[in-house]
Write a structure and sequence with these properties.
With 236 residues, the chain is mainly α. The chain has eleven helices and no strands.
């Protein structure tokens, strides 16, 4: 019986993970309510969740805050862009609804298709921002690339993101307390399980590309230091 409650037991690990997701969810919800901080909050959340998925030791709030501060400017610009596109699509669908009798059906299908593609691409924006250092333009391009390369899991990520809405639909207001504790981080954790393998395919390549450059710089510095020592010895 005592082994069940050991810190390293599977039960305690699960309970610790649940507690971490709950704490992180409350922190993220707070910053989602605050104007213009949603992007940085989602970036910080995915930074922590990816470490959880990889069983890397991290402090939830400390890790979140670290990524939040480091990515605040760029993540906020991405957030404003995402909100702007969402608003445009929302207005367009409201216009379609109010003019349903005159709008060609093909236009409705095209709008649904475009919206679905944009939504699937958006699933990768903040996870990529949390893991890779790139300009905004490259982050958006990489989001499109990852959405295509990981198409089966991209669909899964999109479906998982709708779980809170489905629970709210079937259980009505009774599910609100659960959503307040896990409504953001639980689906995002499942998403992290899906995109983790895809991210790993590209991380070694980044390290290999950077390594030769670092080695050359160190070699140049070493040669310069040797040359200075030789010059100093000749002067003596």
């Amino acid at each position: 019986m005592g082994k069940i409650f050991d810190l390293d037991s599977p039960v305690m690990r699960v309970l610790n993970r649940v507690a971490d997701l709950m704490i992180l969810n409350l922190v993220v919800l707070f910053f989602l309510i605050v104007p213009f901080t949603g992007g940085a909050a989602l970036t910080g959340m995915h930074y922590v969740l990816l470490k959880m998925v990889r069983d890397e030791e991290t402090y939830v709030v400390k890790g979140f805050w670290k990524s939040f501060k480091q990515n605040f400017k760029q993540a906020t610009l991405l957030w404003i862009l995402v909100m702007a596109v969402t608003a445009i699509l929302g207005v367009d669908f409201l216009w379609i609804r109010s003019n349903v009798d005159v709008v060609p059906r093909i236009y409705v299908y095209v709008m649904f298709g475009v919206s679905l593609i944009i939504y699937m691409v958006a699933q990768y924006i903040f996870p990529l921002q949390s893991r890779f250092e790139n300009p905004i333009k490259n982050t958006l391009k990489n989001s499109v690339m990852f959405a295509i390369l990981g198409l089966p899991r991209t669909l899964g990520m999109a479906v998982v993101s709708f779980l809170p809405l489905l629970l709210l639909y079937f259980f009505d207001m009774q599910i609100i307390p659960i959503l307040l504790l896990f409504g953001v981080t639980a689906p995002a954790y499942l998403q992290a399980l899906m995109y983790n393998g895809l991210f790993k395919r590209f991380e070694p390549k980044v390290e290999e590309e950077q390594k030769p450059q670092i080695d050359e710089e160190e070699d140049e510095e070493l040669q310069a230091a040797i040359k200075r020592l030789q010059e100093a010895r000749d002067k003596k």
